[in-house]
Specification:
The chain starts with 22 loop residues before the first helix and ends in a 19-residue tail after the last strand. The protein contains 15 helices and 28 strands. The longest helix is centred in the C-terminal third of the chain and has 22 residues, at 634-655. It has 3 domains: 163-372, Rossmann fold, CATH 3.40.50.880; 387-666, 2-Layer Sandwich (BirA Bifunctional Protein, domain 2), CATH 3.30.930.10; 673-724, no CATH class. By secondary structure, it is an alpha+beta fold. The radius of gyration is 27 Å and the shape is globular. The relative contact order is 0.09.
Length: 727
């Protein structure tokens, strides 16, 4: 339904059929794979020490997976490769090592798969502060897009989502390899806790509302930009957007890209002028094109400039402000995105020159990205930590231990399709922690965390069944997978909840990513709903109840009722109608007569960046009203939210939708809101409420009230609404 299955050669999936393979067939396939691997090992003896790849080579394993799969590099029009090789000495050696890595973990295979799923729409609404245009605003309101925080770092205050989108041209193996290269170098430069990086397909660029949800657009295709797409990019610039062009023909009026074949894929000396007027000299790989003045009038240039140290002083880097709303582009014809080990670099001398300038290459990239408003303060990815099994009530501990004793295997492990949990009495450093194998410590006495206070959680949890058994981690891949092996077996009175301080692979709607920095309340709650019940017949309401529970958990506290926290259909938590600070993800499984529902929820409590948090609202309220409301903690708000959710579910089961809709409408942002059906040119309608299944109802110009559904884009579910066909 979300177009998440992609097939090669433009094939369109029409039907999915499950096939049961007999044990004999499975064994034959396994033996066949083992024989092939043995043949590869026989043909490629153990490498010598001299042929070991350089450390820099191994930083780009993803690009070498194409070799493992038997694919050859795709030659572009300019002779460049669509992937990046391991470098010298990888013939034979790289194949053995990478083949083993690929077969044993498939980690790179998963990365390759994720990067090719174009239907994600790539700019997730899970982290999008939807910022509608204020027709009453002035230029002064948007003049200063970037301000400094207390530590002097640049902070995004434009309201744009923390998304970096990459347009790589037509879908091909070459563009995929180029995306991997460009994404890798930018991920090394920016704070990846503050931004998510997605490819943007031509279809999505023309169809979806990406421009409101993009902090930076990177254009890194060597292909000519189609006219309709160029107009989209120019419109984004005119709205205050930022563009980085990397060896692309994209340019602005007043400039033209001119070919100089003598420079093509040669190493040249570049002088780069920074914003503070200092200069950086480095060796770069030239694309063979330069920027020259062209038709369209003289453009005022920004401070960032880069020219070659040759007689013509050819310009390879230009900064071009655009329009009155702060739009600007930095255009580059030096291959700053390519490492010295790129296949384009053939000569050893060229490799040495580029390698000696590698640190300065990153310096120039960070200067460009910082000028375009991004935060380039680098932070190391946190290491995974063990889980802790914690009871919210003492009396539940003994029954829980008895249940575990009956369900773990002889090694203390419970396995699921997504990961395995190994229950241990204590954790030692020799116990390995991987995304697919996590230790769970059962000794409560050894638990101590600065970020989660079990007593505070217990004090604020007032439920009969929900949130009673906690799986807690300081750092985990995603809480959405932690309950997978337990959810169908554990008694309902032992309500499971997974809580993490930070996630490294947070999930959002569709295949979107979810940013999970420190200070964000991150949890996944297990809820069981009978099929033949009020809520069981209206499962879409679960996401509405959860987002409503977050808002009510705050605004039901005396003196906090005026904190402007609201819900946005279908699953977002907002500050007023201005900026998003949380969202909900629901996965449901029907087994027999029961829905087993995992409700993932994340909302910003004390993390002011990259967008806004609840404590920001409290601080602002105190300032405006001379109040002294206390800030929140993540542990108390998670517990309060679960408590409110259980009450809302009970009310819904007793009274149906009418039991909770008055409270939902009190807090939602859509009263009287106008939207357009089908796109920007569609008919205008007015939102009037929710139907009996939880979908939006709108009133058309003729007065008729109809139900509308999202069109499937994951940028903004209120864009491009459609009226479903009647069956």
């Amino acid at each position: 339904m979300e177009d998440r299955l992609q097939m090669a050669d433009g094939l369109v999936p029409q039907k999915i059929v499950s096939v049961h393979l007999q044990d004999s067939t499975l064994k034959a396939l396994k033996d066949q794979a083992s024989n092939k691997q043995a043949q590869i090992l026989q043909q490629n003896p153990e490498p010598s020490v001299e042929s070991k790849p350089e450390p820099d080579v191994m930083e780009h394993v993803g690009g070498d997976d194409l070799k493992v799969l038997g694919a050859q590099p795709t030659e572009g029009k300019d002779g460049t490769s669509g992937r990046e090789p391991a470098g010298e000495g990888d013939v034979g050696v790289g194949s053995i090592e990478h083949c083993h890595l690929h077969l044993s973990s498939c980690h790179e295979c998963l990365e390759l798969e994720n990067s090719t799923i174009e239907s994600v729409k790539f700019a997730s609404a899970e982290k999008i502060p939807d910022l509608p245009y204020d027709h009453n605003g002035t230029l002064e309101d948007v003049a200063d897009d970037i301000c400094l925080d207390r530590e002097g770092r640049k902070v995004n205050i434009t309201g744009r989502a923390p998304n970096i989108l990459f347009y790589m041209g037509s879908a091909s193996q070459e563009s995929l390899g180029r995306f991997q290269e460009v994404r890798s170098v930018l991920a090394d430069c920016v704070d990846t806790e503050s931004y998510t990086l997605y490819p943007l397909s031509r279809e999505s660029a023309l169809r979806d509302p990406w421009s409101d949800n993009c902090l930076l657009l990177v254009i890194a295709t060597r292909e000519a930009i189609p006219e309709d797409l160029s107009q989209k990019f120019m419109a984004y610039l005119s709205q205050g957007g930022k563009v980085l062009g990397l060896c692309s023909p994209f340019t602005l009026s007043g400039f033209q890209v001119t070919s100089k074949s003598v420079l093509r894929e040669t190493v040249q000396n570049l002088v780069f002028s920074k914003a503070d007027q200092t200069h950086v000299k480095l060796s770069v790989l030239s694309s063979g094109y330069v920027y020259e003045e062209g038709p369209g009038g003289q453009l005022s240039l920004g401070k960032l400039q880069g020219h070659l140290e040759n007689e013509d002083k050819d310009r390879l880097i230009v900064q071009v402000p655009f329009g009155p709303r702060g739009g600007e582009a930095v255009l580059c014809q030096a291959h700053l995105e390519l490492p010295p080990s790129s296949s384009v670099v053939q000569a050893q001398e060229d490799f040495n020159l580029l390698k000696s300038s590698n640190m300065r290459r990153y310096e120039v990239l960070r200067e460009i990205l910082t000028t375009l408003g991004l935060n380039c303060d680098l932070k190391r990815a946190p290491a995974l930590t063990p889980l802790y099994l914690l009871p919210a009530a003492e009396e539940i501990w003994d029954p829980l231990m008895q249940w575990l004793g009956k369900h773990v295997d002889p090694e203390g492990v419970i396995k699921s399709s997504k990961l395995s949990l190994k229950f241990v009495s204590s954790y030692t450093s020799n116990i390995e922690i991987t995304p697919s194998a996590l230790p769970v410590v059962t000794d409560m006495e050894s638990f101590l965390s600065e970020n989660f206070n079990l007593q505070i959680y217990r004090q604020n949890l007032q439920t009969k069944r929900l949130g009673k058994v906690i799986l807690f981690a300081e750092v985990t891949p995603t809480t959405m997978n932690l309950l997978d092996g337990l959810m169908f077996e554990i008694p309902q009175e032992m309500g499971l909840i997974a809580i993490a301080v930070r996630q490294t692979q947070g999930k959002g709607r569709g295949s979107n990513a979810w940013l999970s920095p420190m200070g964000c309340a991150v949890s996944t709650l297990l809820v069981s709903i009978p099929l033949r019940s009020q809520l069981g017949q209206r499962i879409p309401f679960v996401q509405h109840l959860m987002s409503l529970a977050v808002v009510e958990a705050v605004r039901s506290i005396p003196e906090y009722q005026d904190i402007n926290l609201r819900v946005k259909w279908p699953n977002d938590i907002y500050y007023s109608d201005f900026m998003k600070l949380g969202g909900v993800l629901v996965n449901s499984t029907l087994l027999g007569e029961t829905f087993y529902i995992l409700i993932g929820c994340g909302f910003n409590v004390s993390n002011s960046n990259p967008t806004i948090c609840i404590n920001d609202l409290v601080t602002e309220y105190n300032k405006q009203h001379r109040a002294e409301l206390k800030p929140f903690r993540t542990d108390d708000l998670i517990a309060r939210t679960v408590t409110v959710l259980e009450k809302l579910i009970d009310t819904f089961q007793d009274k149906g939708p009418n039991g909770i809709l008055p409270l939902y409408y009190k807090y939602w942002v859509h009263s009287g809101q106008r939207v357009r059906l089908g796109g920007l040119e569609g008919p205008e309608v007015w939102i009037v409420g929710l139907d009996d299944s939880g979908f939006l109802q709108v009133q058309q110009e003729d007065g008729e009230i109809v139900t509308v559904h999202p069109d499937g884009n994951s940028f903004d579910m209120l864009r491009n609404l459609i009226i479903p066909k009647q069956q």
